[in-house]
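Lab notebook page, bench 4
Experiment: in silico fold of construct C2
Operator: M.H.
Input chain length: 187 residues
Purpose: comparison with the prior construct
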Amino acid sequence: MGITPATAEDLTAILKRRHLTMMSGRAEEVHAGEFKARNNRAGNTEFVDFTLVDGTLRQGFKYYAALTDPMAKAIFMMFMISEVHPFTDGNGRISRIMGNAELFKSGLSRIIVPTVYREDYLLSLKELTNREKPDTFIRVMDKLQRFSGNIFGDNFGELSEYLKATNAYKEPSEGALNIIDRFSGSL
């Protein structure tokens, strides 16, 4: 997780290696470690044409490389990979792995998307894609990092109780994410 790309070539190599590891249980089915060989979509969203994936990531790397703030780099990386959707499957997971590597390398709290907040996360990505409005996505990522920074404990029982208190396990229709600041004990 401490490895982040220094070049566009690093970016594609790291992406492919991590995707292969992450999807090893379904390697043949999803062509783990290989960029998609045909176009993919989710609902009405069509992602980058498969013939343009490598070039789009290389161009995106230029913007990424210009950023200096670790959170900005993480957010950009997550968005870029989600937007390009370079693999047949596992794009959301690999985007979060790549973004979290930026945070980990800088000693910052990584980002976990709990079930109860998944729709907010996805809707903020869609708003950035369709309306070119990054504000909501940035706020969502900031909130998720604050939530994730409070996930710690000495044992699984303590951690599980905290996650239940935040509504992390609930479906979005069943509750809202409660961020509990465990350092001060306040909501």
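Observations: The longest strand covers residues 41-42. The longest helix spans residues 8-22.
Next step: discuss at group meeting.
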